[in-house]
C-alpha cells in the first residue's frame, strides 16, 4: 500500500468518525444539542486523532535468498520470523515523538509466492489501550522493516507503557511487545 493510499484511508476513517459524531449530536426532536454522553464520546474520538498523529512506513530490507541464508531456512514449511522491536527513545516525556522499528521475515517453500500480511499495533498502559495502527498489505518473501512513529499524548500518566504488535499471515500469528517509560 502506498503512502498516498494510507493517507487517503486515514482521511476517510476520520471523515466517517466525524460524520458519526455529527449524526449523534442530534437528539430525537431534531435539536442540535449534545447530551453529556455524546459530548464525552465526541471529545474522546476527536481527541484521539489530535493526540496520536502517527506515521507508518514499510520497506523490504532483504530478499528471499538473503533471508534463507540468514535464518538457515530449510524450505519445509511457511515461516514468519519476528525480531524484538526497537523503540526509541525508551524514556519519553508527553508531547514527544516515539518510533518503533519492527523487523520480520516471511518465507515459504514456493519461490515467488507473496503474503497477505495483517499488522496491528496497540499502545497499552495502566487502565488504557489505544490501537495505533491496523493495516493489511501484500508482501514479497524476505525481510521487512515496519516503522511506526507517533506523538505521546500530553495527558498520559507517567509510568511504563507497552507497544504490542500482532503480525499474521494466514493461520500463523505472532505477537511481540516492546516497552518505554513516560517521565513527567
What does this structure look like?
With 184 residues, this protein is α+β, with helices and mostly antiparallel strands. Helix content is 25%, strand content 45%. The chain contains three helices and ten strands; from the N terminus they run H-H-E-H-E-E-E-E-E-E-E-E-E. The protein has helices at 3-24, 36-51, 64-71; strands spanning 55-62, 79-82, 86-88, 91-92, 97-107, 115-125, 128-139, 142-151, 159-169, 172-182. The strands form two sheets. Strands 1, 2, 3, 5 and 8 form a five-stranded antiparallel beta sheet that branches. The protein has a five-stranded mixed beta sheet with strand order 4-10-9-6-7, with no helix packed on it. Helix 1 (3-24) runs antiparallel to helix 2 (36-51). The longest helix is centred in the first third of the chain and has 22 residues, at 3-24. Mean pLDDT is 79; it is low at 1-11, 14-38 and 45-50.
Feature tags:
184 residues, alpha+beta, 5-stranded mixed beta sheet, 3 helices, 10 strands, 25% helix, elongated, disordered N terminus
Concise synopsis of the structure shown:
With 184 residues, the chain is α+β, with helices and mostly antiparallel strands. It has helices at 3-24, 36-51, 64-71, and strands at residues 55-62, 79-82, 86-88, 91-92, 97-107, 115-125, 128-139, 142-151, 159-169, 172-182.
Radius of gyration, in Å, reads 20 Å
- Quaternary structure annotation: single chain
Query: N-to-C terminal Cα separation, in Å?
Result: 37 Å
Nearest-integer average pLDDT: 79
Amino acid at each position: 500500500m502506498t503512502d498516498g493510499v494510507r493517507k487517503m484511508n486515514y482521511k476517510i476513517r476520520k471523515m466517517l468518525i466525524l460524520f458519526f459524531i455529527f449524526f449523534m449530536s442530534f437528539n430525537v426532536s431534531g435539536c442540535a444539542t449534545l447530551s453529556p454522553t455524546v459530548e464525552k464520546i465526541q471529545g474522546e474520538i476527536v481527541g484521539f486523532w489530535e493526540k496520536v498523529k502517527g506515521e507508518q512506513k514499510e520497506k523490504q530490507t532483504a530478499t528471499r535468498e538473503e533471508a534463507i541464508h540468514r535464518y538457515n531456512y530449510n524450505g519445509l514449511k511457511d515461516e514468519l520470523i519476528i525480531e524484538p522491536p526497537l523503540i526509541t527513545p525508551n524514556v519519553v516525556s508527553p508531547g514527544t515523538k516515539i518510533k518503533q522499528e519492527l523487523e520480520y521475515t516471511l518465507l515459504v517453500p514456493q519461490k515467488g509466492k507473496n503474503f497477505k500480511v495483517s499488522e496491528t499495533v496497540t499502545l497499552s498502559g495502566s487502565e488504557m489501550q489505544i490501537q495505533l495502527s491496523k493495516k493489511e498489505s501484500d508482501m514479497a518473501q524476505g525481510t521487512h522493516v515496519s516503522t511506526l512513529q507517533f506523538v505521546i499524548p500530553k495527558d498520559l500518566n507517567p509510568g511504563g507503557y507497552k507497544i504490542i504488535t500482532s503480525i499474521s499471515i494466514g493461520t500463523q500469528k505472532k505477537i511481540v511487545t516492546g516497552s518505554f517509560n513516560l517521565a513527567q
